[in-house]
Design a protein that fits this description.
The chain is α+β, with helices and mostly antiparallel strands. The chain contains 8 helices and 5 strands, in the order ααβαβαββαααβα. The chain is 40% helix and 17% strand.
């Protein structure tokens, strides 16, 4: 497979996997993967068909490199464009406190009601992403991969209105 990654033996397996999925290693990709992995764990779900993911971003950010977060979310959660359970959206009321915002919903099944987790970017994440220089993408990405997702995002359970709005409650 032909893609750009200077493989480091210290890389966790998931980091190489998302780079192969996306074609190279970048910080927005890693950001999405961190959220997806964290949500799968918090919601105690295998992902794939059992979740619905929405990434809220201002419309002027509906372009690369910002949308690379979607590939990180897909590679880590199993939600995909083909299954139509991952979405890119823009809504001023959701984005009022900053961007990006990611909602991950474990869909309702026979045994459990729908449950969701909301991730809102922190100032720390904004600072880290603004410091990125293209000549050091992999270095910044590896540093980001070692961060605690709770430092990068304010994480909270989704409320009933948000779950109802996801259409998966």
């Amino acid at each position: 497979m032909d893609f750009y990654l200077d493989r480091n033996p210290a890389d966790p397996e998931w980091l190489a996997r998302i780079a192969v999925f996306h074609g190279h290693l970048g910080p927005w990709l890693v950001t999405g993967a961190l959220v997806g992995q964290d949500a799968i764990q918090r919601l105690n779900t295998p992902g794939h068909w059992k979740i619905d993911v929405t990434c809220w971003m201002p419309s002027d950010k509906h372009r690369t490199p910002f949308t690379c977060i979607l590939d990180g979310l897909q590679a880590s959660s199993g939600a995909t464009l083909g299954k139509q359970n991952i979405h890119l959206a823009c809504a001023p009321d959701v984005l009022a406190g900053g961007w990006p915002v990611v909602h991950v919903v474990r869909v309702k099944d026979r045994d459990r009601p729908a449950e969701g987790v909301a991730y809102r970017a922190t100032d720390d994440l904004h600072s880290l992403l603004q410091a990125v220089r293209s000549e050091k993408l992999e270095e910044y990405s590896r540093d980001l991969a070692r961060e605690d997702v709770a430092r990068l995002f304010d994480i909270r359970p989704m409320n009933q209105a948000e779950l109802a709005g996801s259409g998966r409650s």
